[in-house]
Amino acid sequence: MTTNIMHSAQAKSVGGRDGQITSDNDVLNLELTMPKHLGGRAREGATNPEQLFAAGYAACFGNAVIYVARQAKVSAEGITVDATVDLFTDEAKLPTLGVTLHVNLPGLSQEQAEEIVATAHKTCPYSRAVRGNIDVALTVTTTEA
To answer: What is the pLDDT of residue 39?
Structure first.
């Protein structure tokens, strides 16, 4: 497997989707709740695994875009990545995920932005981890904030 670990992160879950998560350094200490439409209590102030995955993917993908833009010697200033993670059932009635990433790279041409995002999708660790396992849809815009 991996021979050169660059970074490790650790978190603990107690109680599953209606419990709590904590990171080993106690920076993350979050209550989890199941949404009402999935039969949960939807406790106010609590999050869920899909939101956490969306946040992690958006941050990781954003960094990949910044890296690729720098390699291309263009500015990635003002970049935003909005991630949506959908939980649905597949043909076998098993729960699965789908992701939509909307990337905005203001100030670039549409063609240049799409090329940077496509390259970032090939290099982002999250994208590489889910490739072939879940659908990831990419949309790219270049609007100023």
So the answer is: 84
Domain boundaries 49-141, CATH class:
alpha beta
Backbone angles phi, psi at 86, to 5 degrees: -105, 135
Q: What is the pLDDT of residue 1?
A: 60
Residue 145 pLDDT more than 80? no
Domain layout of the chain by residue ranges:
1-47, 49-141
In CATH terms, are 1-47 and 49-141 the same topology?
no
Token pair listed for 20? 């709590």
By the 8 A CB rule, do 86 and 97 touch? yes
CATH class (in words) of the domain with range 1-47: mainly beta
Q: Tell me, what amino acid is at 33?
A: T
User: Which helix (H) or strand (E) covers residue 50, if one does?
Assistant: helix 49-71
Contact 33, 41 (CB under 8 A): yes
